[in-house]
Design brief:
The chain has 5 helices and 9 strands, in the order H-E-E-H-H-E-H-E-E-E-E-H-E-E. By secondary structure, the chain is α/β, with parallel strands linked by helices. It starts with a helix and ends with a strand.
């Protein structure tokens, strides 16, 4: 992706200070989502690394990962699999608990969503501390799939989430802050 395209995307992201709590500088991606040209650039850039690979499924993490993941899946000719917060999926699930800065959380995926040997990409809007992405990767691995790597729209590198994903294939972040 060209540096001009990356600059367009970076400049469209709105910084919101003290959200959701004091001291946090939130990266608001809704201006990118609202602009068809920018959204297409984001999906194009996130898909590039996997364009010449046979991808069976793209897994997206609740909730903005659904937006990016479904569009990447469509572009790559793959199916889309949602990973959701506990209790939100209607069928038999497998789940993973993971640690947050203050407490724990859980994510789930349908037990029959991914077959052993399928080639899978993880997609999400943001890689921060890596806890949710690592939990999603654990679900993918428990399915017996081959993880081709991960695609994130934004990576907050100072939070070092990449380290939690070290054994899960290449990590592709379109924009890094």
């Amino acid at each position: 992706m060209s540096s001009d395209s990356l600059d367009l995307l970076r400049n469209a992201i709105r910084d919101v200070p003290d959200f959701p709590k004091p001291g946090i500088l939130f990266k608001d991606i809704t201006p990118v989502l609202a602009d068809a040209k920018l959204l297409n650039l984001a999906i194009e850039g996130m898909s590039e690394a996997f364009a010449n690979q046979k991808v069976n499924k793209v897994v997206g993490i609740d909730a903005r990962g659904f937006i990016f993941g479904a569009m990447i899946a469509q572009r790559l000719g793959a199916g889309f699999i949602p990973v959701r917060k506990k209790g939100k999926l209607p069928w038999k699930t497998r789940g993973v608990d993971y640690s947050l800065e203050y407490g724990t959380n859980s994510v789930e995926m349908h037990m029959d969503a991914i077959s052993p040997g399928e080639r899978v990409v993880l997609a999400d809007d943001l890689l921060a501390t890596g806890g949710t992405a690592a939990a999603a990767i654990q679900l993918i691995q428990e399915s017996g799939a081959v993880i081709l790597g991960s695609a994130f729209f934004i990576e907050l590198s100072f939070l070092e989430g990449r380290e939690k994903l070290a054994d899960a294939g290449p990590i592709h972040s379109l924009l890094t802050f």
